[in-house]
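Q: I'm writing a short methods note and want an example of a predicted protein-small molecule complex. Could you take the sequence and the SMILES for zinc ion and return the bound structure as C-alpha cells? Please keep the output block clean; save any remarks for afterwards.
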Amino acid sequence: MKFRYCTECAAPLEQRDATEYVCANGHEYWNEPHASACVAVLRDGQVLLARRGIEPRKGKYVLPGGFVEFDETPYEAARREMREETGLDCPELDLLEVHTIRYRENEASLSVVFHARHWKGEPTAGDDAAALVWRPVEFVETDEFAWHIPNLADRLRALTG
Ligand SMILES: [Zn+2]
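A: Understood, no commentary inside the block.
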C-alpha cells in the first residue's frame, strides 16, 4: 500500500523509510502487515484448500481464511471466514504457525494459521473461494499453492501422522 495523503488533515505524506510516512503536521502512518487468519482442515491425509476467486493470485490455492476485522480476535476471524468460505463450523482451533505473506509489491499480511481439531459440516464454497478441493498435504509446497508458508507441509504431515 502506498500512502499519499494524511487522513487527519489531508496534507501530502512524506515517506520516511520503507514503512513509515509523516505529514507536515506530524501525523504518522505505518505500512504494517494486515492480520489474517486461515485454517487447515484435514481428512484422510488430505488438506482442504480454496481456489482463489479474486486477485492477487486468482486461480491458485490457499488455506481458507481472510483478514481479521477490527473487533475480532484471530480465532473469531478464522471461524467466521470458515463459515463464509466453506460452510464448516470449526469450534476448536489450535495455533499451528504464524508467518508473513507478501501478497503485493508493497503489501503484506501477518498470517495466523490454525488447525481445526474438530469441524462439522460438508464443505461448500462461498465468498472469495471459487471452489474447494481436497489435496495431499504435499500440495502446499507446489507452485499451485498461492503463498509459500515455511514449515507448513511439515506441520500438516505431523498432524496427519
Ligand atoms: Zn496530517
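A: Remarks, as requested: Residues 6, 8-9, 11, 23, 25, 27 surround zinc ion (CB under 6 Å). The mean pLDDT is 93.
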